[in-house]
Each structure stands twice: as structure tokens, then as C-alpha cells.
Amino acid sequence: MTTPHGAARPTTGGGARLHGYRATVAVAMSNYIEAGSIIALATSLTLWQEHFGLSNLAVGLAAALSANAFGAAVGAMVGGPLGDRYGRKFIYTYDLLLYMLGTAFIVFAGAPWMLFVGIVLTGIAVGAGVPVAWTYIAEEAPDDQRARHVGTAQLAWSLGPFVGFVLATALVPLGLLGSRIIFAHLFVIAFVTWWVRRGLAESDVWTESNAKQVALGRRRRGFKELVSHPQNVKALLFLVGVYALWNTVAGQAGIFMPRVYATAGVESAVAQNLLQVLVWGLTSAATFWGFMKYGDRVSRRLLYGIGAVMAVAAWMILAFVPHVSMPLLVAYAVLWGVSAGIGAQAFYALWTAELFATAYRASAQGVLFFVARIAVGLLSYLFPTMLAEQGVPFVGGIMVALLVASLVIGVVWTPDTAGKSLKEIERERYGADLDDAEAAAPR
């Protein structure tokens, strides 16, 4: 790893030295693993339901406890504060070990309890790792390339489902064995990522802030401190509006979309998976050619607004068109796929890193991730039943309402942070560098 001045700095732990963009990629793999877990479960829920004789409510519970919802929420509330107190690298020492244990339970699940234990463990692991990943990447990124670096995590997040649905399509003839193979591939990816990450050094920004706190004999790194400052409360409310509302929709689309397609008349598992391959392929392309290329160069309000409008238009097709045909489903896939690449999640990851001081940046990520995944979990528990009993237009209408709210909040209150250093943003928002202010204050 290099310091802000370009000098090499030592790493801790074993493994090859990671620096620059290679470190960003290694950390961003948390997002590949998270999204891959969601899709691996999404493409196998019906198979697990048939294999174990689970009810629709049990399927909803599995989705609610997963990396898509409550499991990740619990992990985020634990991992975020720990990442602020003990360092970003601390989380990477342990999170993927827990993740590998969880995927092993799922791969070899011979009873429902093994499946549910694996789902919960993988959820907690990714919940702990993803918020800290976004924090680390933003802290290590050059000021004028922060969107590009944060976008790498978004790209990994979209590639996970893309690969997952490609594998699911290819392995359809194998039934549940094919799903076990998909989880096994995630186990391998997690192990390789854990091994490579041993060469990561600690975040320079966190190291500097922590050193000042230690010198002062203070540990300003907790939820109480986070919510005690008015600027933090404003940022939390803004980002809940931007991300939690959008993610409640994305969470249902991520794990239940094959069921939505089936309810709309697409009964072939191959056709369902190919529609999702299109969605995630376009999400990956839009992330790279849209957010990563232009997030540091054009109006963020404009870019966010374009993505948010496309998301609303996509779900309006499902909610308000009386008879959804395959061409309309393709139109949905194109609109939703592109919007996800340049929309709320990418900007959320960027803005959350920018709008909070270093001492509780990861805690803020954890709190917001927790809120977003709780919202997903609450709706996920009921979603399969509502879909079966009320149909696509009913659930589509709920999705449209949530997306419109996220659109308005993000466009109206877009923060002016592009091109500024994290310290500069901190001084503007808090009136001072908080670490320096505390150091200068009389004791």
C-alpha cells in the first residue's frame, strides 16, 4: 500500500503486498460474495422448498434471514462499529472465515436446520464485511477518483449475480446439486479473497485518526457519538431515504425475481435466469461505463436522477401494464439493469463515506446497512405470499412508490462533495477537522 504522498508502507500479516487499485479490487470482492450469496439463494429457493417441503412463509423466512436482509443487518451493526474501533483490516481477518463456514453448511445441507444455519452465518459475514469495504475503498481512493474506486465495489456487486445466474442457467439440469455447486464456488472465491487480503495494510485515514484519539485518551467510536451530532443525523436520514427505500425494492428483485417472472407467465427456469443475466450484465456495463467513468466528472445530481427515473419506469411496466409480455419483460430488464448500475447503491456507498467523519464512518455504514436490510427483511417475509395472493401489479405498485420517494430525496438533497478530500468535506460539514479540534481543545 502507498501513503498519500506515494511512499511505500509496510503491511501487517502474511501474503503478497497489495497497493493501489489491486487493494481496491481485493476489498471490493466483499460485494461479489454478498450479491453472489443472494443470487445463489434466489435461484435455489424453489428447489430447497420442494426438497424439504417448506411453506411459502418458510421460504420468506429464509429470505429474511439471509445476506439479503436480517442476517446482513446484524452483521453490519457488529462489523461497522468494530471497524471504527479496531480498524478496517480487523474485519477482513475474520469475516470470510465465518462466511466459508456458512457456505459449507449450505453446500452439505441435509436438513432444513443446516440450510437455515448456513443462511444466517453467510448473512452475518457479508453484513460485517460490506460496509467496511465501502469505507476502506473510499478512504484509500484519490480525491478526484473516489467514484471510480467506490464503483469497483459496485461492479463486483453486479458481477456476482451475473455469474450466479449464468451458472444457474447452465446447471438447471442438475437441480439442487447445481445450486450446491454455486454455493461451493462462492466458498472457493471467499477462500482465495481471504488469502489475498492478508497483504492489505490498514487504512491511512483511519490510522491517522486513531493515533490522535489514542493520544487524547479518547475512543469516540460508537453509536452514541454517531447520533449525537446534528450533521450525522441529517446525513443518516438522507441516506435512509436514498438507499433504504431503493434497496427494499432491489432486495425483492434480487431474491424473488424468478417468482415474479413465473407469476407474469414465464415458467421456464432457463428463461427466468436469462432475463436476470440480462439485468446484471447491463448493471455491470452501466457501473463501468456510467458510474465509474462519469461519477467524478459530471453532475452527480443528473447522473443519480437518470438512474432513479429509469428504475421507476422499469417497475411501472410491471405494476401498470395489464398483460406483461416477454418484450415488456426485456424492457424492464434493460431499464432496471442500467438504473442499478448508476443509481442509488453506488451513490449511497460514495456519499456515506463522504458525509461522516473518520471516527464513525464505518459505524454509519453499519447503521444504514442495518436499517436497509431490516426493511428488506420485513417485506421479504411477506413478499412470496403477497405475490401469490395479490399478483404482480399489487407488489409492483409498492415498489414504484418506494422508488419515487428515493428519486425525490436523492435529487433534491444531492450533496456537493465531488472532487473534495474527505478532510475538506469534514471541515465543511462539521466546521472543523474533528480530530484536530479535539486535540486543540483544553483538557
UniProtKB/TrEMBL annotation:
Alphabetical UniProt keywords: Membrane, Transmembrane, Transmembrane helix
Main location group: membrane
Major facilitator superfamily (MFS) profile domain sequence ranges: 23-418
Coiled-coil regions listed: none
One Pfam family this sequence matches: MFS_1
Record-annotated membrane-spanning stretches: 57-78, 90-109, 115-138, 150-171, 177-196, 235-257, 269-290, 302-323, 329-350, 362-382, 394-413
InterPro entries in alphabetical order: MFS, MFS_dom, MFS_trans_sf, Sugar_transporter_CS
Keyword Iron attached: no
Bilayer disposition of the protein: Multi-pass membrane protein
Protein name, as recorded: MFS transporter
Top-level taxon of the source organism: Bacteria
Localization in the cell: Cell membrane
Record keyword NAD present: no
Gene3D superfamilies: MFS general substrate transporter like domains
CDD domains (UniProt xref): MFS_SV2_like
